[in-house]
Every structure is written in structure tokens, then in C-alpha cells.
Amino acid sequence: MESVTLSHTAALARLGHALSDVTRTRILLALRDGPGRPSDLADALGVSRQVMSNQLACLRGCGLVDADRDGRSTWYRLADPHLAPALGDLLRLAATIDPDCCSTEGCTCS
């Protein structure tokens, strides 16, 4: 087993912080399929462009997404190719642990 350092735990805490917000989690899950522009992501997730901008800035600060300029557009993508399958695994794990979590009114998960 690999030795766990403070750097490892800090990185995991950053991921936990990113996933602690529903909008950030939805952005990360949406980017599993490929890069996206902020305006398209905002429309797809039903949030304002300002909210999207703020959440993308947070995810960049956490080192989870990168931005690429293409003329007047900016495309966001997951910063590491390992992140997409890891998010899928986490999603499946969450459903396995509690398949009814957050599926009804009165969720106590937050």
C-alpha cells in the first residue's frame, strides 16, 4: 500500500470541497463527457452564467478543471484523465451505499 502524505490528504480534501456543492458536482459530472463552454454548461445545468463562472473558478482553484482559450471562447475540461472514471466510481459507490439518498423530499444527506 502507498504511503499517505499530507499532500495526499490535502488533495483529497480539495476534491471533497469541490464535491460538497451540488452545482460543482454537476459540472464535474458534465465534463466527464468532454470539454464544455461556460454558457453551454450554465444552460444545461439551469444556473446563471455568474454562478457558473464562480463555480468554475473554484474548480480551477482546486486543480480539478483546466481552461483552454479558443478565440473568444473558453473551454473547460477535467484537469486529469483519471478524474472522469473516478467520478463515475464515486457515483456508483454513493448509489450502492444508499440508493434512496436524496431521491425524496426531506433528504438528510446534507
From TrEMBL:
Residues 4-98 form the HTH arsR-type domain. This is ArsR family transcriptional regulator. SUPFAM superfamilies: Winged helix' DNA-binding domain (SSF46785). PANTHER family: HTH-TYPE TRANSCRIPTIONAL REGULATOR CMTR, TRANSCRIPTIONAL REGULATOR-RELATED. InterPro entries: ArsR-like_HTH (IPR011991), HTH_ArsR_DNA-bd_dom (IPR001845), HTH_Metal-responsive_Reg (IPR052543), WH-like_DNA-bd_sf (IPR036388), WH_DNA-bd_sf (IPR036390). It holds the Pfam family HTH_5. One of its GO terms (biological process) is response to cadmium ion. One of its GO terms (molecular function) is lead ion binding. It comes from the Bacteria.
